[in-house]
User: What shape does this take?
Amino acid sequence: METLSHAVPVEKCCAAIARALRWLAASEARIAVLEDIASHYKAPYLYAAVGQPVLARRYASLFRHRYLQPDGDFRTRHDFKGWGHLPCSPANRYIYSNGWLVAGFQKMGAYGLARRGLDFIRRFQAAEGGFCSRYDLETGAVAPDLQDTSSTSSAGLALLACGAIEEAARAGEFVLRILDAQPQPGRFFFSSWRAGRGLMTDVFGEEDQQALRGRKQFCLSTEADPRQELVWLIGKPMKFLAKLYDATRDRRYLAGAGALFDFFHKLGEGRWENYANCKTMWGGAELYRHTGDPRYRETASRILTWMCDTQRPWGGWVHWLWYRSDEEQPFSAALDLVQELCAEMSDTLFELSADTPA
Assistant: This one.
């Protein structure tokens, strides 16, 4: 076996996940009174991934009775999606959370919920194959003008989880089209597409990552501080394309995931210190399972190690993209990050444990 400077931190990772799960258990009373769906949407996937069936079943009931709407969407109220602490997220990527939920329900075996959620997601797939970014709650209409890779990848992962391979492949073709259309692939990754007009590149001017129309919501730059970039713009489609390769054995998807991985390494040295890297860790580990290439394991292991090393004593993390201290970070934001990191760290260990390419 090759020698890596960043070996897979199996014991450290398992201990970090266990510590975070203890915090979740100790915080159960505080969690139960949170109404915003943004606090809970990753929980079904998490508890299915870490093998806690009682909690998984509890969340299946919660989403069925509190958040499932007549149109098949999951939202906080009939007239409010959620994300009180980060409103730019559903405004730019409405069905991102729906993809997490459907994949989680399918993973736990709540197939009826998964089907209802997937039927809603399907409404967002455009003729180009990508998934639309926005939904009008007043009219119940999908806004057809803008598609993006994060919504597409989240929907694509849900489609794959439910066995809808042909629809997922159409989504994969859209992501490949986005990659091919990049005008300066050594400098920028633009993630959004305007129907009938092509890649959305007029995104510069506002650098606040929380701004609804800010550059960082639509474009990852190699020329900015990588510790303050939304690196999930490449990590989510990387994971999706690698999963799509697993389902289809079409090597174009594997190559597309590899190109996104290579873009990560064009970022500055600070790229390692960003919790948004969890998606690159997630996708890189998937690529390792399919190829056995040590570059993928090295990168995933290095990010995984950093995640473990920066865990706070109480069991969670402070998302430095948005907050600077335990006190500044809202409890709901801490909860969201813990659920995501634990789920993806668990998946990463699974992928990195492959002895031979899958």
